Amino acid sequence: MSLTTRVAPPRSQGAQARHATAAALRAAVQALQAEWTKVRTVTGPSWLLAGVVTVTVAVGVAAASVARCQSATCGIDPATVSFAGIYPGQAVAAVVGVLAIGNEYSTGMIKLSLTAMPGRLTWFFAKATVLAAPVLTAAALAVAGAALAGRLILPGHGFTPAHGYASLTSATDLRAAAGAVLYLTLIALLSLGLAAAVRDSAVAIGLVLGLLYLFPLAANVISNPALARHLDQIGPLPVGLDAQATTGLKGLPLTPWQGLGVVALWTACALLLGALVLKIRDV
Amino acid sequence: MTTQTVTPHRPPVTPERESFWPLVHAEWTKFRTVRGWVIAMLVTIVAITAGAFLGTDVSGGCAGGHAASGAASAAACPAQPTGPGGVPVQDVFYFAHQPVTGNGTITAAMTSLTGQFIVGTSNGGWRTAPGGLQPWSKAGIIIKENTSQGSAYAAMMVTGSHGVRMQWDYVNDTPGLAGRVAASAPRWLRLVRDRGTITGYDSADGTHWTLVGTATLPGLTSTVQAGLFAAGTSVQSYPADMRGADVPDNFGAQATGVFRHIRLSWPATGWTGTNVGGAGPNENGAPLPGALRQNAGTITVAGDGDISPAAGNAYSGSGQSLQRALAGTVAGLIPLIVVAAMFITAEYRRGLIRVSLTAAPRRGRLLAAKAVVIGAVGFVAGLVAATLALAVGTPLLLRAGPLAWPVSLLTEARMVAGTGALLAVAAVLALAIGTIVRRSAPAVAIVIVVIIVPYLLAFNPLPGSQPQGSGPGGGGGWPLQITPAAALSLQQAVPQFHQLVAIYSLNSGYYPLAPWAGLAVECGWAAAALALAFFLMRRRDA
User: Fold this and answer.
1) For chains A and B, what is the number of CB pairs under 8 angstroms?
2) What are the boundaries of each domain within chain B?
3) Which of A178, A240, B263, B503 has the most neighbouring CB atoms within 10 Å?
4) C-alpha span between B180 and B186 (Å, rounded)
């Protein structure tokens, strides 16, 4: 109850009409504050974000400790080894994104939220912003941890200058790390958008994980190479992995930044769909 | 008085309440009256059926098929010889033979089996290098219908490291004497033909004979070719010094067998040497011509190639595994997992669990009833979907020619029932995880991550980890051995052979575990999750 009183302080109708822009800005700030309070005061998101970090780092460490580069022609991308934890880590990020909206619907909180903030789109994009900030932080921690683990473990496993790995902290490696952080954040936002569109946590997480994992699986099982390459150019997971590559960039279906662009496009579509559904449907 | 006041509050338990099946019926009613869940099951069936169209796209790689490009790509694809029963075979070896008619016996003693690598040289020729005796390099005596590829045969042989074997009609293999052959430890081999039956014996001294096996070769012609053979088999791993850039290609190994005391009960007509399958580095021929040398009671036969089923990467034809028709299974699992998790999490979310537990206070029974209902739903959905997928996918696959391995009705039934079982157990696992975490989104995410991510990892192994999918272990490695995804092995439609060392990769339809072992792994996960769910449900408040 304290939330409602905080987020909807009495405002004069006349003042809002005269200063529409200022009022919209204030509403946005208040929405952000309110949503941030929700995130801050509920323990679930913190645990899940800790889960993103733990899973990503732990699987990255495991992958790095089994990886071996025997010769100068081993052709292994050290970034894909360090960031192997993104595979399962993104599922946790997706759960964070889905629950941000899903919990509102499953607990009925949505009615209260929209009563307090009738500007639905303002509320929705405040929600997205407030989700993005902590996810970005957690993703940065996760990726930094995984990259650090790779930096410490991989040189001992044959990823040495003699085998063509001069440095594991070049500009390309930083770009790959940035790509991984942005990827995790975009996946959380994509999940938020889809959850707003289907309004059910279970269905939303099924859709998100299907969208993520089925594209690369389909590319693996079909024997038509042209079709497989197209699937690798549009699926959010394979293009997101392109954004994390540091070697063999010429052979990728898309360049790293193009790949991140495709993920951003998926996210934008999901958010727009979510906003549209929220705008036109009763809660 | 006391009993009278208590009785209305705790009426004697009626048989209806004690019985399990009304509970199952109640849970079934819950399931079938939620329209979204029924629609999701239809989505599962449609996804698996639609996957057959994607999985059976045979336009790529070495597959003919599509009418538009059929002629061109079919020409690029070598035809795989087929043996008795229509199974694809490798039948390339060196054969020193003579025609024989009617019943009789062939006997020979082997004193040596050696091997050489066949290595391509940079100028396009070939040379041999020592040390190439492979585990299944083989030489011995053989009775074969004729010298064309794929004809019926039975053979007694000495192998590189598997002792004496009797093999017949490509897929059958029986062990005889163990140990290596040497001049001091000769191996006597004998084949006795009696019409369509050929019996193999071995002996260490030429006087005490042991029965090894009896082969029935239906429809064997009266005149057949009997003689000596050698085949070096393909090589799966060359020594490091042979993998340099100056070796453009490797062609396998040659085996050389030395025979003495060769006796045929038929009238002798002299030996003829034939490279079965042809000589020359084409797809089905031996790169090096074989050799036959005779002097002073000793015959030496050298040859490369192999006489074996064409499974794993030994198969070079255009056919596909029937398992491709079930490629949509993983996609179909997603809606099933969502519904199975919601089957319990929705009760927690809406508080219905309290009503359910008031009606059925024995919590374990409620969980069991739910597991029975969701398992049965998953099984039926899988059964229907797999039947439809095979009905749709089989003709599509056959456009590329015969399947990579002919599939018996029994195997097909196992694939269909196995898909049902795989889905049923996955649904129970999702229900159990849903009971444990009591929240939809984490439950669905956990189950999808433990089933689908391992499958993805099996296709795209962690870079730099041990190479997977070689040897008779099958493709996919640990992700398909220890996770619930192991149960996908129920859909394997191509057989593995211990007597054929080849790459059995996931892409050509091989799994690391046997079908029922894979199901057992998935059942283990479901049972463990169910036990934890039962334990927590009894301890916690609803």
Assistant:
1) 126
2) 18-62+318-539, 89-309
3) A240
4) 9
Closest CA to B308 of B496, B178, B160: B496
A67/B465 CB distance under 8 A:
yes
CATH class of the domain at B89-309 = mainly beta
Cβ contacts of B539 within 8 Å, gap of 6 or more = none
Q: Which of residues 210-249 of A touch B (CB under 8 A)?
A: 210, 213-214, 216-218, 220-228
Element of type H or E holding B74: helix B70-76
Q: Sort out which chain A residues have CB atoms less than 8 A from B453's CB and list them.
A: 87-88, 91, 213
Which chain B residues contact residue A77 at CB under 8 A? Answer: 463
Structure tokens of B29?
């009613």
Amino acid at position B380, single letter: V
Neighbouring C-beta atoms of residue B95, cutoff 10 Å = 26
Interface contact A157-B464, CB threshold 8 A: yes
pLDDT in tens, A146-184: 999 988 888 888 787 777 676 666 778 888 899 999 999
Which of A9-23, B301-315, B352-366, B424-438 has the highest mean predicted lDDT (pLDDT)? Answer: B424-438
Looking at every residue in chain A, the average pLDDT score rounds to 86
Which ipTM score applies to this complex? 0.87
* Sign of the Cα pseudo-torsion (B403, B404, B410, B412, in order): negative
> What pTM does this model have?
0.87
Provide the 8-state DSSP code for B462.
Answer: P
Residue pair A222/A245 in contact by the 8 Å Cβ criterion:
no
Tens digit of each residue's pLDDT (9 = 90 or more) over A111-153: 888 888 888 999 999 999 999 999 999 999 999 999 999 888 8
Interchain proximity B441–A204, CB inside 8 Å: yes
Q: How far is CA B132 from CA B111, B118, B308, in A?
A: 18, 8, 19
Count of CB atoms within 10 A of residue B15's CB? 7
